Amino acid sequence: MSPDPSAPGRAPRDSERDQQLQLDREQEHVRAVYTRLDELREHTRNRLTQVRRGGAVGTHQNRSERDAFATLYEDRLAQLNSVEDRLLFGRLDLRDGQRRYVGRIGISDAEHQPLLTDWRAPAAQPFYQATAAHPGDVVLRRHLQTKGRTVIGLEDDLLDADAVAGDVVLSGEGALLAALNAERTGRMSDIVATIQAEQDAIIRSSLDGVLVVEGGPGTGKTAVALHRAAYLLYAHRDRIERSGVLVVGPSRVFLRYIEQVLPALGETGVVATTIGDLLPDIEAPATEDPAVAEIKGRSTWARILSNAVRARQRILPERDLRVGSLRLRLRTEDMEEAQARARRSRQPHNLARVTFVRHMLSALAGQYMEKVEAGTEDHAEIVDELRTTRDVRVALNLCWLPLTVTGLLEDLYAKPHRLAEAAPRLTAAERSMLVRERGSAWTPADVPLLDEVAELLGADDEAARAHEQAERARHAQEVAYAEEMLAASGAGGGLVSAELVAQRFIGGGSGLTTAERAAADRSWTYGHVVVDEAQELSAMAWRSLLRRNPSRSMTIVGDVWQTSSRAGARDWDQMLARPLRGNFRTETLTVNYRTPASIMTLAQEAMHRWMPDLPPAPVTSARDLPGAVVREKVANLTGELPRVVADARADGKLAVITAAADRDRIAAALGAGDGLDLRADVVVLDAAGSKGLEFDVVVLAEPQAILDGGSPADLYVAMTRATQRLHLVHSGDLPAALESNH
After folding, report:
1. Contacting residues for 546 by C-beta, under 8 A, at least 6 apart
2. Distance (Å, whole) CA 30 – CA 23
């Protein structure tokens, strides 16, 4: 924030005319930067058009080059279009008289002279790191406030009064304070103009290894993690652009809340998902008892699922197999040898099955040849005949069953004897809690288990062949359509084939971006992974994420004070000891920029009473507001809540947070939607659904019900979402820790 205007060394404010002159000078530079942005957009758009006109003709190499250039120009155009808002936000005046403007991307003029320095570049680092105590070469830091392409305000930090240029008139009361007091919109804004020094150090931390960023509510953990992703893509593009960055959030609502941040920072190629959406083609909309989710999250499921797969690899009792007029013997020694060979291949179940079947067919073919006249049958022909014989197919399937991912897990849930066989370490009561019918909807806790099964099974070769056949059939249809089109129109003149037209329609190569290809591929490995609200993840969820990041380059952010999942963390060392073997470094954010001090103090003191064994939380609020906590007892919550909400909405963006069991009833009483659109006039959420979000005003409906229906962490999370005002509205008793006389 800016120094106190009355502090020694601070130049006095000049007249309004001089202030306007400062605005006009900055407007001139802003206009030049936007003019150049428009020129770059037009140039990129023209180059893209030229590449697309080339079509899918020429050699395969030529087509590949055109695809690459088209992707390059598309990505560049998307970047140039995404930085329109607040393109330029800062200026550094240096001791040598140089002025350096800082913005979302780097821009140079036609002569390659810099007009704007990318905020991630080393040259921009002093904008975030310089202080009055350690100014370095910086004498003045200026924040430019813009609306559209117009400069509407200036905020100055004077770091060296003796060295500042004579034409500078100091302005403003502090960019950070202005940002803190700005009204929320239902979408997270980037903090690129107001990154603080402790945040900047974390953002620019090394790519290698696992970085855990811990901090209480409002310390900017999410913003730091997203800005770090953007910084790493800029600073290490050669290492991670092709493999991409994965961002994992706690809910789809949260992902919508943050979806504009990375594009606004010039990055559009990031995959954002939840644990429940991690697998392509798997929907997990169902909910379940937290106790059941906790059981599913235990690391023991890696062994349970391995046992379940191994149980489908069996040695059958010996029997005869009818092959035409012959009878062949299914022999124990053949099955054991085939099974041993398959397991020695160390391939997943469905891939190892190929080895098993090949050896068994060869052994059976040997019996076949012994029973017929030597030399009258070709070995390969015999194997083909055996492969299609019903008795043989049934026997080999029973020995080594081809499995599907969903089928195996559904079997465990639906058949208690299967689960008992695979999971002897679970108690009978725990196994009974997992029982459900086949076809039941998946839950988010099922997804890491399905991912584990997919890893154990590998590709189903039959499914892969079916997919390949479907692709060939689709291509044949496209060619047939192209032939009809050429014949009907008389186009082509013999110079253009139907194959070429079909290829042009469906795309000669993959037109998908890295992010699109990664999101569609379960086995994709990412160059870096960002995990938000990481304290909620189970041991099985960690296995899924680490599988996608073998390089162990991760940014993990969270707060163990906010852990509500029974499978989540109470201690980072304990949670990460097994998946990371303790190999991680930790940074702590200590300043709460969101929550007024009086709200934060109330929430922290309450948590100390509810959970006295929690580790210390060194969090200090940057500001306080008068009357930030309001308590109101009502006779009828549902009847009087509309009035409370109508009055509170005057203070800004509002959310009502309630117990999960009451959410639908209260939303109906307020005429609110499903809580998925955070830009709605009134948003109603349960405590878990509010994780990671912030609002100007939070109306906490019946806090005791939240405490009774969830955990102290749920109520702590709900209390700390407000940036201006917290209304505690209740018809029953308040929790004792929240009473006004506490």
Report:
1. 552, 579, 580
2. 10
Spell 628-645 as b/e; 16+ CB within 10 A means b.
Answer: bbbeeebeebeebbeebb
Q: Would you say residue 493 has pLDDT above 50?
A: no
Strands 138-147 and 150-158: antiparallel
> pLDDT tens, 388-440?
999 999 999 999 999 999 999 999 999 999 999 999 999 999 999 999 999 99
Which residue type sits at 201? Answer: A
> pTM value?
0.82
Core vs surface per residue 546-556: b (16+ CB within 10 A) or e: ebbbebebbbb
Residue type, 557: V
Token representation of residue 268: 């559009």
Q: Does residue 10 register a pLDDT over 60?
A: no
CA–CA separation, 651 and 183 (whole Å): 9
Going by pLDDT thresholds of 50, 70 and 90, the confidence category of residue 482 is low
Helix 379-388 to helix 390-399 angle (10° resolution) is 80
Stretch 348-367: mean pLDDT, rounded? 95
**Percentage of the residues of the chain whose pLDDT score is greater than 70:** 85
Helix (H) or strand (E) holding 92: strand 88-94
DSSP reduced 3-state for 509: coil
DSSP structural state of residue 496: S
- Could you tell me which residues come within 8 angstroms of residue 268 by beta carbon, excluding any fewer than 6 positions away? 75, 78, 79, 82, 262, 515
Token reading at 120: 């991630």
Question: CA 15, 21, 22, 23 torsion: positive or negative?
Answer: positive
Return the HEC string of 640-699. HHHHHHHHHHHHCCEEEEECHHHHHHHHHHHCCCCCCCCCCCCEEEECHHHCCCCEEEEE
- Report, as an integer, the average pLDDT of 634-645: 93
Residue 142, classed as helix, strand or coil, is: strand
Q: What is the phi/psi pair of residue 158, to 5°?
A: -90, 120
Binning pLDDT at 50, 70 and 90, where does residue 371 land? confident
Three-class secondary structure of residue 191 per DSSP: coil
